[in-house]
């Protein structure tokens, strides 16, 4: 074997050969690992002095699957199916000793062994559909031989990760070893029976169970094409012999691997890991946040408190008086009772979580809080009062956060004598459900306070994204531009329904006018009125939404908005058409037609353009963070990878041309960003630009 390959090494214990995979950070099946495994398998197969083989990944690890970073490149030899075939062909018994994860290709490798034993904390799963692909190295053929076709449809179709005990129950693993896993594997190897999974028959099929599993997987798959493909593959190949099934798996795997959807999902996987890396925070320790307090027990405050309780922490919610505190307590009880009733939680867990939250009107309860999150009314005078009081009662070193969406958190920080302890934590409603959390770094936020915001978000199971201070932060600022341009399209000739349909066919669950109706049009209306005096007269202003509000059409809650809801569904409304026609006339616009593609490209381009401005200003650390904000907070389709990934796919020259057209339609504020122009002229992408700026490590 090639001695310079340190990714895979062989050692001996008597007649047993231990093959160890050691490739940071997670033992992915990168090329050196595949090469090492292939050589080890061939070498050991030919070595008559070897009576048994143990395959392991060192303490705490097995194999995390194929290398996601290699998937943008063409396949490289040796390919994994060949490596796995070589492992399965070893004539001596081979034991997989699994500690940590065996995911994707990792489980496929393990299933090529004769015996699989694991520590109790190990976990296994064929999770490929999460990445928009299917198991491409025999997983779709070996797993059904162990668990049956219906169960395989469920496990692969839903990308389930199983804890070791459950995997033993299903027959995927053969046993659990509490301690000394490796010693036990060595003891078992020489006498273990050869049990070649690919030679096993597929257990008797159950058509009804397969159908149920298929439907459930496709429903949960949210349109990821790989789910339907793999479900079809499992059913189709259940009647084939192993080599024919394997061939079919390969045929369906390759186009998925090369698909735009898979590239988008890989991009988002890596983006999530990248987002945790914040320059300047290396080695900075977060402060404590075991006891959290929330100021304001309204919809947002209650949702935040629930997110805190769901994560196992305790929360105090401060309300203005005892009556309001009691209302908040009953709102929380109801919310958890509803979750229990729907089967999401047991009654006991719901009660436990409810008990972790204490609504009160007593500000003295704040003295013990490590982290205080203000979620009160969006009014600077209200925030001023709260932060002055917080400054007086919070213990030294407590982190003070504001959940403001639009007010300037630097101004809020200045109400205290400890602006270094202040930051923004911008949750998205419903705060206990939505994954996105914008962590807003103010001018004076201390590094360990920012680190606390990130660690707290992670503890809550959120995706924390750092934003600088600007109007609307990353998400709402870009969203505002997107919405404004959608209204320009309507005044220029598209109907609200056409715009929404174009967005829905792009992959949004709902178009933006339907979303507006759902959230209510009055909040934005109030904001427009507040800003009327300071608006740049060079910015084009579309008054259709104002006319709707003036007519009492505030959205779903009033039965009408951009649509009419008399039938229970969003229906186009002639009254809206009349308002639009009148506004077009007043603006001197001759309406023209837009194709769905024109609408999609226009709206994507203006998002990318505003995002480029945000990057230039240093408000966001990197393009991929912006993609995460939109896919996790604004319903941007994950299969498109986010607005900047999608803009890259469209080509930045085309995007710039679109932005130039949009600038003519929009006036001041819609000008092309210098960064976008620069990237387009260099014929490069946001992704390349990010790569070039990446901080080492
Ligand atoms: N390839 C490359 N890098 C990976 C990786 C992978 N599969 N998995 C993780 N990393 C990197 C990650 O980017 C991060 O890097 C570091 O490892 C730690 O990850 C043929 C085709 C393994 C459970 O989908 O689920 O097999 O940011 O922060 O919370 O059929 O990562 O430090 O530079 O997530 O401890 C199937 C994906 C592939 C597994 C660890 N496998 N990974 O979680 O740490 S497809 C997967 C995970 C396949 C075959 C098919 C998790 C984890 P950096 P982390 P973690």
Automatic annotation (TrEMBL):
Q: Sorted alphabetically, which SUPFAM superfamilies does this protein's record hold?
A: 6-phosphogluconate dehydrogenase C-terminal domain-like, ClpP/crotonase, NAD(P)-binding Rossmann-fold domains
Q: Start and end of every 3-hydroxyacyl-CoA dehydrogenase NAD binding domain?
A: 291-467
Q: Which UniProt keywords are listed?
A: Fatty acid metabolism, Isomerase, Lipid degradation, Lipid metabolism, Lyase, Multifunctional enzyme, NAD, Oxidoreductase, Peroxisome
Reactions accelerated catalytically = a (3S)-3-hydroxyacyl-CoA + NAD(+) = a 3-oxoacyl-CoA + NADH + H(+)
Entries under InterPro entries matching the protein: 3-OHacyl-CoA_DH_NAD-bd, 3HC_DH_C, 6-PGluconate_DH-like_C_sf, ClpP/crotonase-like_dom_sf, Enoyl-CoA_hyd/isom_CS, Enoyl-CoA_hydra/iso, NAD(P)-bd_dom_sf
Give all residue intervals belonging to the 3-hydroxyacyl-CoA dehydrogenase C-terminal domain: 472-565, 599-685
Q: Where primarily located?
A: other
**Which pathway does it serve?**
Lipid metabolism; fatty acid beta-oxidation
Subcellular location per UniProt equals: Peroxisome
Top-rank taxon = Bacteria
Family designation: In the N-terminal section; belongs to the enoyl-CoA hydratase/isomerase family. Belongs to the enoyl-CoA hydratase/isomerase family.
Q: What is this protein called?
A: Enoyl-CoA hydratase/isomerase family protein
Could you tell me which species this protein originates from?
Pseudoroseomonas ludipueritiae
